[in-house]
Amino acid sequence: MAGLSIHNVTKSFGGTNALDDVSIDVADGEFLAVLGPSGCGKTTLLRLIAGFEDVTGGRVSIGGRVVSSPELNVPPERRRVGIVFQNYALWPHMSVAENIGYALKVARVGRAEREARVKGALALVNMEQYADRRPANLSGGQRQRVALARCLVAEPSLVLFDEPLANLDVHLRASMEDEFADFHKRTGTTILYITHDQAEAMALADRIAVMDHGRLMQLATPRELYHEPANEMVASFISQGMVLPADVLTAEKKGECKVKVLGQELVVRCRKGETPRRNARICCRASQIEAATDKGEGFAGTITRAVYRGGSARVEFEPDGAPHTGLHFDQPDPVTFEAGGRARLRLTSGWLIPAAGAG
Ligand SMILES: Nc1ncnc2c1ncn2[C@@H]1O[C@H](COP(=O)(O)OP(=O)(O)OP(=O)(O)O)[C@@H](O)[C@H]1O
Fold first, then answer.
1. Which residues form the ABC transporter domain (predicted)?
2. How far apart are the CA of 59 and the centre of ligand 1, in A?
């Protein structure tokens, strides 16, 4: 397997940049997810790596060899990149083994070697006992495993997954997530996994590249994205983080500083070297909001919605004097908040979002 390096890549269609100066390094054997809303450039990135599109600027290297630059575009068949698509497109008239071996047959690989490689690929996806079945007689998840085996039989240097679970129902998705994770652990394949589903990305990836409008917003581990978002887009995109205006009152000390948010003074986590500033933003999570017990603390406002969900209610709240700052949190049973009611809440913690342009 080989690593992948995307270096300052730009891709424009007409005058607009579908990708704008994107740099991502995927280590040998790493599982990296590319996550972002519709139109952020995920598919374009995948097509560039596979060689179906050329780059406008920058370069793509696989295993240390440049395969794309404005002067060079190594054709897809010479990149040894495997792709697993969401619609697995298996030949219905061929058995599982024939589907997997078809490309080798076309490439005139001898029968004995072909059979051995098909067997090996089937073993990698735990499908040995299905070699003679037709795709019509397999479940959606099994078909997706055949599609993976078909890509692995060509011994790719890296594997791209393009929303491979998008067509599967919720239960199957969960079990396929486990299978992909297990497959990655067993084989150490370098994987770039494109998805707009953040739960999937979080469950599977070593690191996640969050994209928006063709730009890389943050490249970090799932935990870091959740706890230390680099900007407002990542803060609000990942797990519906709430972004609140704040003034920073004290300089950073041991990874924390004091801020004033919605009239409340609060100690939040922050990056090293933060200094006092106005018009900052903090990110807080539903679990960091609670009902104030003391009359003087926190901030007052109105409950706009309370939906009981069994064991707890999801409560939405609008602080006084900050009409466009919607907060949400869970109140465990006994649920007392009701829409239209008044309440006093307090924040217990948060993360100071770094200033725009800060590292
Ligand atoms: N061949 C093309 N010609 C012109 N514009 C294009 C072309 N391909 C993509 N784009 C534009 O580039 C941007 C990124 O598209 P892309 O398909 O990469 O996004 P995506 O993140 O994969 O979206 P989705 O999740 O909806 O598939 C979009 O604004 C899209 O309209």
1. 4-238
2. 19
What's the CA-to-centroid distance between 159 and ligand 1, angstroms? Answer: 21
CA of 110 to the centre of ligand 1 (A): 41
Q: Per-residue DSSP letters for 108-166?
A: T--HHHHHHHHHHHHHHTT-GGGTT--GGGS-HHHHHHHHHHHHHTT--SEEEEESTTT
Q: How far is the CA of 54 from the centre of ligand 1 (A)?
A: 14
Out of 43, 85, 197, 217, mutate this one to test ligand 1's pocket (max ligand atoms within 8 Å of CB): namely: 43
Written in H, E and C, the secondary structure of 240-253 is HCEEEEEEECCCCE
pLDDT at 224 over 90: yes
Which whole-number Å values give the CA distances from 297 to 283, 290, 309, 347, in the listed order? 20, 11, 28, 10
Could you report the predicted ipTM of this complex, rounded to two decimals?
0.95
Residue minimizing CA distance to atom 20 of ligand 1: 39
The residue whose CA is least distant from atom 12 of ligand 1 is 18
Poorest-confidence range of 25-29, 45-49, 172-176? 172-176
CA 316 to ligand 1 centroid distance, Å:
34
The pocket around ligand 1, CB under 6 angstroms, is made up of 13, 18, 36, 38-44, 196
Instruction: Indicate whether 358 pLDDT > 90.
Output: no
In order of 161, 182, 210, the CA distances from 46 in angstroms are: 9, 23, 14
**Cα 255 to Cα 114: distance, rounded to the nearest angstrom:** 57
Note the pLDDT tens digit of each residue in 182-200: 888 888 889 999 998 999 9
Q: Taking each helix axis as running N to C, give the angle between helix 111-124 and helix 170-187, from 0 to 180 degrees, rounded to the nearest 10.
A: 120
Ligand 1 atom at minimal distance to the Cα of residue 14: 4
The pTM of the full predicted model, rounded to 2 decimals, is 0.88
Predicted confidence (pLDDT) per residue in 14-29, tens digit:
989 999 999 999 999 9
Question: Which tokens hold the place of 112?
Answer: 């004995």
Cα(81) to ligand 1 centroid in Å equals 21
Q: In sequence order, which residues have a C-beta less than 8 Å from that of residue 310 and are 6 or more positions away? A: none
Place of tokens 């018009």: 279
Collapsing DSSP to helix, strand or coil, 336 comes out as coil
| Residue 123: predicted pLDDT | 87
Its sign, for the CA torsion 252, 253, 255, 256, is: negative
